[in-house]
Amino acid sequence: MPSESYLYEDGDEEAELEFLRESLEQMDNLTDKTTQLLKVFDIRLKNLGRVIAPIYKSTQKLTRLYDNIEATVGTLDDILLFFNVAKDELETIHAGPDESELLPYLDSINRLKDASDALRELDLESAAQSRKEIHELLRIGLGNLSQLFSQWLKQHSGGIDPAAYANASEIPTFPTDTVKLLSMLATYLNLVNDEVSYDLRLTKTYATIRSRHLQKSLAQFSDMCNAYIRSNAVEAAPSQHGFDPTSRGGMAEMRFCTIRNENWYEPGTSPFAQYTINVVKLIQAERDLVRHIMPTVISDETFFATVDRPLEAYIATGEKTLTFFFGSPMYEILHALDVYGYLLETDSALKSLLAPNQSQSSSMTKLATRLQTHLTKAFIALINLLRNPFKDDIMPKQTGGVNELVSNTLTLLSYVISYKDLLVTLFLSMGDGYWNQSVSHESPHVSQHASDPSDGLSIFQHYLRDVIDALAYTIDQGGKQMKRPTLQFVFLINNHSYLARALQDTMYAGDDMSQSLGLGDLVGRSAQLRTESQIERSRKGYVATWKALMSAFPAATLGPAEKLGMFNQGFDDMVRSHRVYDIFDADVRAMLVSDATEAIIPEYEKFLRQNSDNSSEFTHAMKYTPRDLQRRIHGMLDD
Description:
The protein is mostly helical and 639 residues long. The protein has 22 helices and no strands.
């Protein structure tokens, strides 16, 4: 039975397999038919695409054409509006801007500008006519804005006193809101000016108004300089380059040599120094204001145009001041030095302000250079004057007093050394001994070199030592001009003592209260010792003139009474001559009295002891007792 069962199962499987095969064949047939049908559809779709493509392209063209027509219609509407802009904005433009509300006026000008740009593209007579009307309105509108710009500038450009403010940042200019409005207006005008090709001259407008403001603010300093020059001028300048060290003469030199100056220049009081400080201060403030108001592209041009006239006026006054220095007495060196220092201090600041403008930035430098040349010549002229001190119209007075040239020179030096730091640089630039270039190497006036020729201070000290030596020579030459031997020695003692006191009183080294070196410190102790030696030699000569009164005492051919008579006459003449001597130094007066007393009294007492005679002739001839002589000598310098 099992075998039959297996036969039965195999038969079923074969039937199922046959059924599956038939089904697969039917599906293959169906697939082939479907494929053929799809191919037919594909061919028909391709044919349909070829038919529809031209229609689609035509539709796109129609769409673009519609869009273009719609845009053209819109543009035509706008253009038609542009034809009416001039009429619409006429009233607003002619009314001018409202200072409190500027934007509506600017919007009106913008609409005119846009209309002009649009109508420019139309080649129509009507468009040209409309543009002409628009341009006229633009000219009026921009002119009104430019006028408003000027008006706002002028409100705060009436001039100020810059000396009332410590620095540029404190100088008042414009309120913040006004600066913002000016800046907005300047930016707008500059932009529109470029677009519509109108010459609004914005830079010129600003420069004209603000330049006038600066000139008005600085006029007081120019006036002070001119007034100072008029009141202190001595004579016309000998040259345009300052002192000629080889030349002599002139009222300025005579004044320094013969008139004791009582009004010495005080640092910082120069009107031109004040002018220099304040012109730089104002220019700094103006530079900042220009940068806040004017557009960047024209700010530098505007700034240079603004400060050009004020700078010209300043330089012109500087030239006048230099010309004044060139023809002034020697003591104006102090004034020139002070101005020179201020020029150097402000030179870098002004250069940074005017750097792009070479001519403007170099103007103050040129002024300082000319003044430096003058100063170097002036220092040579001073020492040459001392080395050749006297001539017919410049002679020392016959009074034995301190000579004006001596006193003026020492006072001048005491002031000059207050500019030591400035002079150290100046002398270093000129080199050691430059003031001796015209002097022969064999001349007694040529001193040794500076201790360190590469050090400015050492060179300056060398110069001062040479000046003191030249001053000692001046004193010696002045003594030779005295007409009486006694007067000669009085002059020498008085003037050398004045020099010694000046050196002694300015030796501050070691003084804890002193913060700087004095003249005595700078020239050194050797100058003091040489001067004291000159005093001692002169005192010996002075004593000899007194002893000469007793030259007849040893004479064997004369009697005692005759000897006394000759002595009395000489003594009276000597005392009488001393009464006109100008000896104001108490120490010098005491020195002269002491020397005269020691020269006369011991010899006179000795003579009386040796020639005691009770005769009436001798008694009559004995006019003075030793005590009487002492009293006369002690009072001989009194008025």
